[in-house]
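Q: Can I see a sequence and its folded structure?
A: Here is a first one.
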Amino acid sequence: MIDPGTGPTESIPLDRIDFSDSRFRIGRIHREDALARSVEMFGILCPPTLLATGNDYVIISGHNRLEAARAVGTHAAECTVCQTISPRIFMKHALLKAYRGALGPAGKLRSVQIARSLGADEIELGHTAIRGLGIPDEIYRDHAFISGVRALPGELLRYIDQRDIGFKPLKSLMRLPAEGIGLIAQWVEEYYLRLNIFRDALELMLDIYRKKGSIEEIAGILPRPGADPHAEEERLHEALFRIRYPEYSGIIAAADSIRERYRDRGVSLVLPSRLEGGSVEARISFGRKDSIEKIGKAIGSIAPGDIRSLLDLLS
């Protein structure tokens, strides 16, 4: 096999490339308009690497570029063709992708899995994986963990790499039962959760699972298709938070009773999300035609004792 970025190239018809064979795919999937425009105007700037398999070819590196070329109607592309594949050179491809920021946690583990299947030397592979790709030693040595990650739902795998969630959250994810993984996969597929929401939801789910021994209580917290994404993210987080911290519901009920009284007076008392903060806001709206008496009455309706009670509820 040829070092990445070196060796002669040849024009390969795209209809002889097996795009359905993704056995060597480790990089993030990018279907961006910018890539397609670049390929359409200038061709593929960095030649992909292919493995010859009889009369056809399998992509080793350059999946996104070749898919973009096919999408814009290109019939052939300049590629580097290999007759064999070496685990050492394959890991050089993986390192190059990692240094370019094109390789997420799942892709890094997949590269190790592929290199092992090609007969890689474990000492050399371990050095490359741990020092070069940043895979934690305990994960690198856990073959079952790596296989388990590979078996995750496809959309969740793509999310893990696209969001670059890190290995610590990945370990938390793999500690969940299959039903928990399926639940978080549904949310990711429907709303592509913001990373901070994903991480928080994951830790809350894992805490609930450890505490209760199952995820039965959260199994019904399902995404509602077509709703506002941010509102749905907050709904997920709030629901998990209430289950993880049952005392929170009682505190919120006490706060809501105070806030409801003030809402009737035109005063909005705003608490920090999940009571995590150090301040309470009182918001009052006044109109141009409001009298001094009305303004004074609204301001005077705020009782210091009520504000103090709300502040005491904050964590």
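Q: Show me another, different protein.
A: A second, unrelated one:
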Amino acid sequence: MPKADAAFIDVLRAKLGEVAIVTGRDADDQTIDAYGKPTAIDSVIVRPADVNEVSFTVKACADAGIAIVSQGGNTGLSKGTYLPEQQPSIILSLARLNQIESVDPERWTITAQAGVTIQAVQEAAAKVGRLFAPDWGARGSASVGGAVATDAGGNNVVRYGNMRDNVMGIEAVLADGSIWDGRRSLRKDSSGYDLKHLFIGSEGTLGVVTSAVLKLVPATPHATSTMAAITGLNALMPLLALAQKHGAGTLTAFELIPDVAMARVDELLGRGKPIDAGTEFSVLVKLASSEPVDDMIASFLSAGVEAGHIVDAIVAGTPDQEA
């Protein structure tokens, strides 16, 4: 795959500084994805420090015909950060845009730059007694920009929705280098097109997200999870209905987990299967609320067994098991 020529990189280096340019083996090492393999060889990574430097970089690339592939936390599983085969390109890393710009518990919002990790957002929200609800295993590496660009989901979608449902406004750099600031925190805004939704899930094709206003929700200090071995896929939807009924508005996660996936995790990590009832599938169910939910979990499991959908189950009894 062709890379941007040295003269062009020197232009970026002169404007952004030496720290913003990564090449050679160092660049390749920074493209290692969730599969443990680099997504590019002999690449050039440009690491702007703020939105104005992103703007300069994008405009320079547009003028020179250089393709851009944005890089977040390298946690995606769809190989969406591979470079084009035929066009000179750079990788645009947002890692240095790593500031939480504001936390507003009264407006229930947090504004974070694209390179901030999901875990950092969650921790900042927790400090003011709030919750940033989107959550998945790669929270410590996955970035706000990548999550917005891919409309990431995670474990809590059944209650809180995808990223799209948790973003109130964004700032983005368009293909010509212009900056669009749509960071509004209004809960009700009927003033025309909701342009942010064009960028959310667009995979960077319409612009580079540099900052986002994120929605916070009430904290749920009481959470209990159960993993239940089920009789088959036909039991899935009836169990979802039971979880919604017995959870009474507290159902936060409902995830189908094939036994083959648990076996693979056990093989790689040696942690053992949480449940081994000889069935092909299990469901992970999480209830969370401001009040204890243990009785609701017990009621759900009892109803599932009585209906003939659940073979066996285990309830998380410690914080480690819950995690």
